[in-house]
Automatic annotation (TrEMBL):
Catalytic reaction list: D-fructose 6-phosphate + L-glutamine = D-glucosamine 6-phosphate + L-glutamate
Protein function: Catalyzes the first step in hexosamine metabolism, converting fructose-6P into glucosamine-6P using glutamine as a nitrogen source.
Subunit structure: Homodimer.
Organism of derivation: Edaphobacter aggregans
GO MF: carbohydrate derivative binding; glutamine-fructose-6-phosphate transaminase (isomerizing) activity
Domain SIS, residue spans: 46-185, 263-411
Name this polypeptide is given: Glutamine--fructose-6-phosphate aminotransferase [isomerizing]
């Protein structure tokens, strides 16, 4: 097993580091970098059917559902086609309105999740064709679908999904681009620009993941020994350290992994975490919260940044770490507008003594003056930022769970694939 982990302490860490390859392999052969055209093989859905489609109905579970929520933003923005996103476990119980021109889209790492298969059966019974985004060739969902976009992430062993998620986001982006080209909703120049930007993602991820010696087992600066904090009652845990004003100004540049280890050291005793995002970054906030709760057993909630004033603001005090996704594409006015709104949400949190960890875009020198901690990711077009910004959230959850002595790859009460309803 140690050999299968390729020197990493856990499968999850190995899989986090495999994401550049997973994204590259999911794009490979599907996009021309000369023209930006998308080629999707083996779909028995014609271009005419895509043009006539009235909507896309996405059904999925867990992390795959978060990918679906982000996919809604991609498809609606690029292809101007309405998208509904359902929990697969809810879909058939709400007596969905039949529309044979709606195309069903099932997103599933395993292709065997019982609820997702049931939603697919319901869609097919109502006359819709179904597409699958799936990581396992030949799985049940792919056998029933009219076409599959395979995510080439390779086998995922860690129960908490990481590389399958970023590969799903990549496949959704490719699908959105394809729909936009078929439906003629973007120009050839935009297509080429977006295809080129997509092709740059793996190397951008490589640059932030660039391994530091402490990441692998057996190196001189191994990850701090796990503490049994998870087992200790909340009252016995040490309080969060005070706001490190001085540290923020003097700490030298850290790698992403070191930075997340540092934050884990500061915040692993928290009882609650909040994750905030707006627009396409909101599903990533949900995913950050899910990663943390499933492997560290800390209660975490993801929330749309603008909804804080309608309830969660009441939770904020000096013991609440709040992870705010505040990235932006400076070339996209709608992205900048959302960013500015998120900045005012961040100020509302800091005014109430919340402990803000911001995920921001390199080059944004303003935000680090407003918050306690800033993690930078490389710039990208708005719809591609989620693929970069989820990685620090995965690493943060990972290092917090390791510090709390949790079984990162096999969290209690959870299964990799849930084949019962
Ligand atoms: C389980 C796993 C999650 C996964 C979900 C959906 O709950 O623990 O990581 O997101 O199932 O699985 P699927 O294979 O359908 O993507």
């Amino acid at each position: 097993i140690q050999a299968e982990k390729a020197g990493y302490k856990h499968f999850m860490l190995k899989e986090i580091n495999e994401q550049p390859r997973a994204i590259r392999d999911t794009t490979l052969g599907r996009i021309s970098l000369d023209t930006g055209r998308v080629f999707l093989d083996n779909l028995s859905i014609t271009d005419e059917e895509f043009r006539a489609a009235t909507q896309i109905t996405i059904a999925a579970c867990g992390t795959s559902w978060h990918a679906g929520l982000a996919g809604k933003f991609m498809i609606e923005r690029l292809a101007r086609l309405p998208v509904d996103v359902d929990y697969a476990s809810e879909y058939r119980y709400r007596d969905p309105i039949a529309d044979p021109r709606a195309i069903g889209l099932l997103i599933t790492q395993s292709g065997e999740t019982a609820d997702t298969l049931a939603a697919q059966a319901e869609l097919i019974a109502k006359g819709s064709k179904t597409l699958a985004i799936c990581n396992v060739v030949g799985s049940a969902v792919t056998r029933r679908a009219s076409g599959t976009i395979t995510t080439n992430a390779g086998p995922e062993i860690g129960v908490a999904s990481t590389k399958a998620f970023t590969a799903q986001l990549t496949a959704l982006f490719v699908l959105a681009l394809h729909l936009a080209q078929v439906r003629d909703t973007i120009s050839p120049e935009q297509s080429l620009h977006l295809a080129t930007e997509l092709s740059h993602l793996p190397s951008k991820l490589e640059s932030i993941l660039a391994l530091h010696s402490s990441t692998k087992v057996g190196m001189s600066e191994g990850v701090a020994a796990p503490t049994p904090a998870a087992a200790a009652p909340a009252s016995a845990r040490t309080p969060l350290p005070p706001f490190p004003f001085i540290e923020r100004r003097t700490r030298p540049r850290l790698s992403l992994d070191e930075h997340c280890q540092h934050l884990a050291k500061l915040f692993h005793n928290a009882n609650n975490f909040l994750f905030l995002g707006r627009g396409i970054h909101y599903p990533i906030a949900l995913e950050g919260a899910l990663k943390l709760k499933e492997i560290s057993y800390i209660h975490a909630e993801g929330y749309p940044a603008g909804e804080m004033k309608h309830g969660p603001n009441a939770l904020i005090d000096e013991s609440l770490p709040v992870v705010c996704i505040a990235t932006k594409d400076p070339n996209d006015p709608s992205s900048v507008l959302k960013y500015e709104k998120t900045l005012s949400n961040i100020q509302e949190v800091t005014a109430r003594s919340g402990r803000v960890i911001a995920i921001a875009t390199q080059g944004d020198d303003e935000i680090c003056n407003l918050v306690e901690h800033t993690i930078y990711i490389p710039p990208a077009p708005e719809l591609l930022l989620p693929i970069l910004e989820v990685v620090p959230l995965q690493l943060l959850a990972y290092h917090i769970a390791v510090r709390r002595g949790c079984d990162v790859d096999q969290p209690r009460n959870l299964a990799k694939s849930v084949t019962v309803e």
